[in-house]
């Protein structure tokens, strides 16, 4: 691997169908098509997935692209096609030096003292929402979890409940996310890009109404923290930067967390011995978790890691080459769109024993430590997910109360069918057999 080009041999071309290439397969089952094309072409190939892209597979590829030691891969160039219309100014699509500056300021809101406050703040909101959940033979898990995580996001990020606007705000987030994959990229009604742009307008107006009061407030919520945060050189966010970051982080905090929680509920339903084990851990602790208690849930931690291995919320991560480079003898020209697929890496037989099996103990055995980029549900390098520790706190706080209050199961013959893009979620909403314990 090198940014110095020693060969002009490009990766083999996986052509697929005229015009659309392998787009349908990458949309419906990216793991299967990656494994198929790997067998045919190896760990690097060119294909068409909405755009022409060079796909690089495996931990070495993840490290080459995500670590980006030579600074030759642009996050903005990779993400712009998909999200600029609805998430402009998103931290994950920024390049240095802007990315470094913005991230330094944002980090203030994710340090441990802040996480401790968020944990204290979110637990009453969780308890309030769960108090309304009842036993049901077809409990639609995804829908309920999504509303719960939106409640938490607004409580922790905004310092207040969305209230009567909740449904409208939630739909605005749904529309903006779905617009990222719109085939018609112009905002023409009634197509999804138009709905996404309208959704963004709704969110911008919502945050703008609150901006002045948050600038004047010293409350501990994310919104106020971003309004006042400065880096060591005194740089501060503009109003537009605050709004852009709030919209993106609110989406990430409830959409990707909903994906992970739903996958975890599914895995624990299909593996009742693990559900019993993690429930026993939570029952040994009090109703309310302290920050120190988070480390006293080791089995739950293993299960979260395994759910993220099997069902990472984002199956791929795009970049764009800003200079000619080479990966394992394959020439990549400047301007090439490049994609890495954490989902594929998480199922490679060379690194994982029985990779399709739910086996949380693999993390206790250190199976994930053979290569520093074989397990990358949060990405890697300078663009590693800024909110991963917040997500871990939120997931554990929610699961702790769910495990103490409910049992859930699925028929033995239930078959999970996920929508794989843009964010993984069950097509049927995951209808659990849900039982309140107290």
UniProtKB/TrEMBL annotation:
UniProt key word Heme: yes
SUPFAM superfamilies found in the cross-reference section: Cytochrome P450
Needed co-factor(s): heme
Name of the protein: Cytochrome P450
InterPro entries for this protein: Cyt_P450, Cyt_P450_CS, Cyt_P450_E_grp-IV, Cyt_P450_sf
Organismal lineage: Bacteria, Pseudomonadati, Pseudomonadota, Gammaproteobacteria, Moraxellales
An example Gene Ontology molecular-function term: heme binding
Keyword tags: Heme, Iron, Metal-binding, Monooxygenase, Oxidoreductase
One of the protein's GO biological processes: sterol metabolic process
Keyword Cytoplasm: no
Pfam families given in the database record: p450
Species of origin: Paraperlucidibaca baekdonensis
Binding site for heme: 385
UniProt similarity note: Belongs to the cytochrome P450 family.
């Amino acid at each position: 691997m090198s940014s110095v080009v020693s060969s002009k041999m490009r990766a083999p071309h996986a052509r697929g169908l005229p015009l659309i290439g392998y787009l349908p397969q990458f949309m419906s089952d990216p793991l299967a098509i990656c494994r198929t094309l790997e067998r045919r072409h190896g760990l690097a190939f060119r294909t068409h997935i909405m755009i022409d892209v060079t796909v690089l597979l495996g931990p070495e590829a993840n490290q080459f692209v995500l670590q980006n030691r030579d600074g030759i891969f642009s996050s903005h160039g990779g993400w712009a096609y998909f999200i600029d219309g609805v998430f402009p100014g998103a931290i994950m699509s920024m390049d240095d030096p802007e990315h470094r500056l913005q991230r330094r300021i944002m980090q203030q809101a994710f340090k441990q003292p802040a996480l401790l406050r968020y944990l204290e703040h979110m637990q009453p909101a969780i308890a309030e929402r769960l108090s309304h959940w009842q036993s049901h033979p077809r409990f639609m898990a995804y829908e309920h979890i999504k509303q719960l995580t939106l409640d938490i996001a607004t409580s922790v990020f905004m310092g207040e409940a969305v209230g009567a606007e909740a449904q409208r705000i939630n739909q605005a987030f749904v529309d903006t996310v779905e617009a990222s994959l719109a085939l018609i990229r112009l905002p023409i009604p009634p197509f999804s890009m138009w709905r996404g742009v309208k959704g963004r307008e709704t969110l911008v107006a919502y945050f703008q109404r609150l901006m002045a009061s948050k600038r004047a407030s010293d409350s501990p919520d994310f919104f106020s923290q971003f309004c006042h945060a400065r880096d060591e050189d005194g740089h501060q966010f503009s109003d537009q930067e605050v709004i852009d970051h709030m919209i993106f982080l609110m989406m990430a905090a409830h959409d990707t967390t909903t994906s992970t929680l739903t996958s975890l509920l599914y895995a624990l339903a299909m593996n009742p011995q693990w559900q019993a084990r993690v429930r026993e851990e939570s029952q040994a602790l009090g109703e309310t978790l302290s920050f120190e208690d988070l480390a006293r849930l080791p089995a739950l931690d293993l299960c979260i890691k395994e759910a993220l291995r099997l069902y990472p919320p984002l199956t791929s991560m795009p970049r764009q080459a800003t200079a000619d480079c080479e990966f394992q003898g394959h020439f990549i020209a400047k301007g090439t769109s490049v994609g890495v697929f954490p989902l594929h890496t998480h199922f490679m037989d060379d690194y994982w024993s029985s990779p399709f099996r739910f086996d949380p103990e693999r993390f206790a055995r250190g199976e994930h430590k053979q290569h520093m980029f074989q397990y990358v549900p949060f990405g890697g390098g300078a663009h590693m997910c800024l909110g991963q520790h917040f997500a871990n706190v939120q997931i554990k706080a929610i699961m702790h109360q769910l495990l103490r209050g409910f049992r859930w199961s699925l028929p033995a013959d239930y078959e999970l069918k996920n929508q794989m893009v843009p964010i993984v979620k069950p097509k049927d909403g995951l209808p659990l057999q849900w039982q309140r314990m107290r």
